[in-house]
């Protein structure tokens, strides 16, 4: 980070949009918002956006919450209380609250910012970066802010480079050779290609940089327009593309990689399949995301736990794990693990066999259970002898089974079993 980028980061506030449910995660988000979902053993998804901000030199942060916010707010209070006002640092939790017009929900992403503009302006940031709180990636935002200032644009939009026909589910930017956005198309059937890269397209990451006062003016002007949907992607950005100057910032220019990461890493773990895959991928010999990179730490709330323990050494009853990641507080008691990811405090009991299991904190796997390609929610008690992953029809009746064969198991599902 050069001195100019660092100076600009110090003049910037990060506003994290963390109110979404993440309905495609089904029962996993029945009691928690998607940004509060566990990921990578110790972290929550929101920790990546927050850590990127802090590591980039941005020390003023606001987090807008809405759906099922208690778990998220508790995590922020426990894990992010190191921000100190006397060092000009702050992390404000901004729940949707009662307004003078008697409406108490954020009507959209732009409305979440508009409702908190008085708080934002109270800190006096020259720039504001709007972030989505539900993606997994490492990025130096200071480089994107510098790109915005150097371009003189009204808005700079963070974009991920994806194979062109994989962009059909995104908002896609059509740009010229100078990164100017010529058109913004939501979920196009035929996505426009990047200049010079006919097989690639630029998809919006939901990251926007504005000059604060300019954004305030835009939000006020949009409020009275007919059909205004209170959304950045649906309203504000397309209007700037049409009537102002919008610049695309490709993620590859500011992504953070260690020596182990060969290409930029960005994931939306918004489905059960994607959540399972992204966690299991971390067990690879050379994972695409390096969680061991101490130069760009992912800050989080870290529980005080004992080290993981592996016990019993009898034939057929030996606690061992292969190509797996096992968090603190886990006890692997006479069971076998292959390509599994166990979060804090998971217990696996004798003769159980786990293959491709993502077990969230304090799950308890009973004796002689056989689990394959499953996600086990927090605190679930798997009964003795339960078999999942070997009979697709039976699994689909008892649990939530995806088309790709991943089973989600929650405690209410277990409680309904006739065992």
UniProtKB/TrEMBL annotation:
Annotated site residues (Could play a key role in the communication between the regulatory and the substrate sites) in this chain: 66, 105
BP terms from Gene Ontology: glycogen biosynthetic process
Quaternary data: Homotetramer.
Organism per entry: Octadecabacter arcticus 238
Phylogenetic placement of the source organism: Bacteria, Pseudomonadati, Pseudomonadota, Alphaproteobacteria, Rhodobacterales
Keywords: ATP-binding, Carbohydrate metabolism, Glycogen biosynthesis, Glycogen metabolism, Nucleotide-binding, Nucleotidyltransferase, Transferase
Record-stated family: Belongs to the bacterial/plant glucose-1-phosphate adenylyltransferase family.
Alphabetical list of PANTHER family matching this protein: GLUCOSE-1-PHOSPHATE ADENYLYLTRANSFERASE, GLUCOSE-1-PHOSPHATE ADENYLYLTRANSFERASE-RELATED
A Gene Ontology molecular function term of the record: ATP binding
This protein's name: Glucose-1-phosphate adenylyltransferase
Binding site for alpha-D-glucose 1-phosphate: 106, 171, 186-187, 204
Free-text function comment from the UniProt entry: Involved in the biosynthesis of ADP-glucose, a building block required for the elongation reactions to produce glycogen. Catalyzes the reaction between ATP and alpha-D-glucose 1-phosphate (G1P) to produce pyrophosphate and ADP-Glc.
Boundaries of every Nucleotidyl transferase domain copy: 14-283
InterPro entries tied to this protein: ADP-Glc_PPase (IPR011831), ADP_Glu_pyroP_CS (IPR005836), GlgC_bac (IPR023049), GlmU/GlgC-like_hexapep (IPR056818), NTP_transferase_dom (IPR005835), Nucleotide-diphossugar_trans (IPR029044), Trimer_LpxA-like_sf (IPR011004)
Record field: catalytic activity: alpha-D-glucose 1-phosphate + ATP + H(+) = ADP-alpha-D-glucose + diphosphate
Pathway(s) where this gene product acts: Glycan biosynthesis; glycogen biosynthesis
CDD domains, per the entry: ADP_Glucose_PP (cd02508), LbH_G1P_AT_C (cd04651)
Signal sequence interval, chain numbering: none
Domain Glucose-1-phosphate adenylyltransferase/Bifunctional protein GlmU-like C-terminal hexapeptide stretches: 306-409
SUPFAM superfamilies in alphabetical order: Nucleotide-diphospho-sugar transferases (SSF53448), Trimeric LpxA-like enzymes (SSF51161)
């Amino acid at each position: 980070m050069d001195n100019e980028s660092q100076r600009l980061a110090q003049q910037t506030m990060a506003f994290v949009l963390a109110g979404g449910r993440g309905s495609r995660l089904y029962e996993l988000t029945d009691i928690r918002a998607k940004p509060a979902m566990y990921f990578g053993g110790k972290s929550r998804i929101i920790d990546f956006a927050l850590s990127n901000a802090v590591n980039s030199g941005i020390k003023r942060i606001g987090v807008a919450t809405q759906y099922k916010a208690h778990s998220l707010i508790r995590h922020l209070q426990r894990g992010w209380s190191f921000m100190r006002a006397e060092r000009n640092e702050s992390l404000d939790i901004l729940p949707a609250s009662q307004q003078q017009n008697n409406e108490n929900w954020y009507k959209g992403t732009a409305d979440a910012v508009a409702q908190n503009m008085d708080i934002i302006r109270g800190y006096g940031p020259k720039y504001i970066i709007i972030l989505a709180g539900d993606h997994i990636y490492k990025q130096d935002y200071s480089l994107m802010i510098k790109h915005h200032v150097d371009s003189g644009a009204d808005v700079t939009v963070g974009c991920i480079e994806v194979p062109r026909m994989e962009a059909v589910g995104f908002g896609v930017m059509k740009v010229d050779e100078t990164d100017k956005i010529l058109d913004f198309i939501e979920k196009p059937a035929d996505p426009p290609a990047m200049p010079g890269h006919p097989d690639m397209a630029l998809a919006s990451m939901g990251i926007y940089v504005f000059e604060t006062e300019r954004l305030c003016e835009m939000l006020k002007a949009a409020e009275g327009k007919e059909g205004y949907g209170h959304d950045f992607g649906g309203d504000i950005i397309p209007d700037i593309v049409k009537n102002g100057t919008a610049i695309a910032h490709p993620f590859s220019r500011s992504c953070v990689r260690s020596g182990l990461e060969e290409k930029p890493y960005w994931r939306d773990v918004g489905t059960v399949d994607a959540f399972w895959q992204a966690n299991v991928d971390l067990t690879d010999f050379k994972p695409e995301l390096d969680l061991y990179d101490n130069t760009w730490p992912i800050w989080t709330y870290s529980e005080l736990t004992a080290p993981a323990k592996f016990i019993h050494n009898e034939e057929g009853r030996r606690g061992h794990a292969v190509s797996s990641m096992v968090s603190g507080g886990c006890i692997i008691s006479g069971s076998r693990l292959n390509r599994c990811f166990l979060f804090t405090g998971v217990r696996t009991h004798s003769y159980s066999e786990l293959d491709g299991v993502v077990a969230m904190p304090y799950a308890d796997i009973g004796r002689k259970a056989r689990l394959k390609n499953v996600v086990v929610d927090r605190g679930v008690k798997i009964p003795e002898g339960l078999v999942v992953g070997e009979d697709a029809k039976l699994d689909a009746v008892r649990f939530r089974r995806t088309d790709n064969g991943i089973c989600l198991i929650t405690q209410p599902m277990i409680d309904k079993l006739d065992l």
